[in-house]
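Obj.: predict assembly geometry.
Materials: sequence records (below).
Method: joint structure prediction, all chains together.
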Amino acid sequence: MVGTRAFDTECTHLQRQGQLALWVPSVGQEGCQVGLGRAAEPQDHIFPAYREHLVAKIRGVDFVNLAAQFRGLTHGGWDVTDPANGNFHLYTLVLGAQTQHATGHALGQLLDAKRAAADTRLDPGEAGTATGEATMVFYGDGTTSQGDANESLVFAASYQTPQVFVVQNNRWAISVPVARQSRTPLYRRALGFGIRSVQIDGNDPLAAYAVGRRFLDLARTGHGPGYIEALTYRIGAHTTSDDPTRYREDGELEHWQERDPIKRLEAYLRTLGVEDAFFAEVWESADREAKRARDAILNLPAPTADSMFASVYSEPHPRIEEQRAWLERYESSFEGADGTKRGSDQ
Amino acid sequence: MAADDRVILMGEDIGPLGGVFRVTDKLQAEFGSARVLDTPLAEAGIVGSAIGLAMRGYRPVIEIQFDGFIFPAFNQIVTQLAKLTNRHDGTISMPVVIRVPYGGHIGAVEHHQESPDAYFAHTPGLRVVAPSTPNDAYWMIQQAIQSNDPVLFFEPKAKYWQKGEVDPSAAASPLHQTRVARPGTDVTVVGHGAMVTTLLQAAEIAGTEGTSIEVVDLRSLSPIDYEPLLASVRKTGRLVVAQEAQGGVSLGSEIAAYVAEHAFYSLQAPVLRVAGYDVPFPPARVEGLYLPDADRVLEAVDRTMHY
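Observations (raw structure tokens):
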């Protein structure tokens, strides 16, 4: 939690220095992210939105790769198929699109289990099949208004997919409060789809861990989907492009800063007898790691012009090849006597 | 489906009903409800779930019931399906086939006969094809399923009831290959899907009047295989592009521009477009005025011949 916050702060600074095009802070939401991230087993798959920096870290994704997209170097950042990245899928910027990919993926897990059992039937709403793995998908309170997020609940309920929906209710969809989005607590919406749901204190990592384990276990063992609404608060801005002082009431931030998940966990650990030296070391190592990440982000190589064309299709495509060749010829026409080329970042 | 057990069918009413056009008739009985999935009535959910299945290694073939209903899924197709291989630096493929019954000629109600093909041909990352013969329908769907890229498979509704020869033993043409459907020497006319039948009718009539029309069937709308078309234009010196969809900012516009750029000195007349008017697809009782027929094609042929 502390490491992620330090990294987060570095990235906000990098954006202010013009080194990142945008940053999406997760400050204040580390509690539910660490609990839920730790609750998943290695074989589980996780589909994030774009603010789940701590979940990414837990699954093995390097912070540096996480920032590459925001530096304008890639639309991805890490190899989802590399086991080192812990089945952590790419960030999705179109709100809610990933809820459906997660549901399809969980349906695939279910179909895999059925194939293994030579079961050719898939009846609507049938009691689940134990799959031994689950899919977890993250989104925010604003996304609960999107059609895609609601359709994914319909599909998950219909096929009883082994998945857990996690809504981090940080109270604000950019400047629109959750009250503008929903007349009912969000977890109660899931009940209307026939999906078990619970609302948790998202600033309590232990609660998040316990409930996350329970729901993921139920999904893996054939008891269908679940839905967790984690009540938390976005202490920072939605992104580095907005200014929360324009839309938040006085005193609200201070109220939530007192309930900061890091402060709360520290207070709890102190009651268990953990001493100052431990906390000092945590903050120091977080600072070191954040600085390492900052330097590495600044040294990430710019993509080559050719990379634009490299993976638009999986199979050869004549127009792409034609345009790739044209750009290569055009760029080489600028080659100087010293062999230098014009480049995307040179 | 028999050849590859990773092929999964999904769509509304494709199970016991066999699809509204009965294209998937009896497949659920043969392969089971875990491979032929009747889905909830939600197009975005169908496409979005297919994307997740593809990430899991499946090869989903999904049915959008009617052309006009593809738009609720437009976001999933254009911002997700088309881009995910690129976003993953090629480490994953998106072998999803989206079957779309499209086009007019069946006298249906609003949203049940449209031609949204150009929206998808405009989108990098997608492949778009449309068969015009039973033989192509037989082969091209199999090739589309084998493709590791997402394929929009536009099925001309007008052709569902037309019979024709299928040769399962002959070697299939490559999926993205233009076909000369009828050779000729005076004018090239090009189209796809049900339009090819109209073009062949026009060629037949023109032949009796002494004009030799070469009919070119695009088959693939993205990528377009331009070489056979350019070869035809270099031979005839004249080109008429015909399509059911609206003419403005369309496939016809793209073809006209490309041919002008690559065969300018062969052209003896401007490239002409015969297309749907730039209006929403009209009520069925006037679709006969909207859809290009052989007469409108021949009118354009006359104009280009007398230019």
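Conclusions so far: Chain B touches chain A through 52 residues (CB under 8 Å).
To do: check interface contacts against the pulldown list.
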